[in-house]
Amino acid sequence: MKLSKFEAWLYDNQPLSPEAELELRNAMVVSPELREQAEGWRTVRADLENAEFVGPPVGFTYRWRARLIRHQASHRQRQVKLALGATLAGAFGSLGLLVMLLLISPAGLAVAWMETAIQIGRSLEAAVRLGDSLIDGMPLAAGALLFGVTLAWLSAIWFASLYRFAFQTLQNGERK
Fold this sequence. Notes:
Layout: H1 5-11, H2 18-30, H3 32-50, H4 60-104, H5 106-136, H6 138-166, E1 170-171, E2 174-175
Antiparallel strand pairs: 1-2
C-alpha cells in the first residue's frame, strides 16, 4: 500500500515546513477521508502517549526464567545425545568395516599383523642394542660427569669469593 504525500505527512513525526503544512490543510478541507485519517491518528497518538505502563503479572519473570533454564538443559541434553549418537555410529561403522575386511581377506590381515609384529620386534632389538652401548660407556661418562660437576662447584665458590671481595662496603676509607 503506497501512501500519498499527504498521508505520509500525517504519519511523519518530523515538523512540516509552513508551505507543506498549508498544502496539507488545504488537502484536508477538500478530502474528508484525509480529514478522518488525521483525526484518527491524533486520537491514536494521544491514547499511546497517555497509556499506563503495565508490568508483567506477578510471577511471570520467575516462570519465564525457569522455562528458559529447562529449555537450555533440554537443548544441552539433545546436543549430548546427538554427539553420542554420532560417536556410536562412527564406532559401529568402523567396527563393521573391520569385520568386512576380516571376512574378505583374513589371510591378508594376518600377514599384515605378522609384519607389524616383526617390525616392533626389530625396533625393540635396536633399543636394547642402544641401551647396551650406553651402559658400556657409562663408567667413562660418569667420571666425566663427576669431574664437570666438581669443576662447576669450585667455579661457583671462586666467583662468589671474588664478588664478595670486590663489592665489600667501605667504612672510613677501609674495607670492612
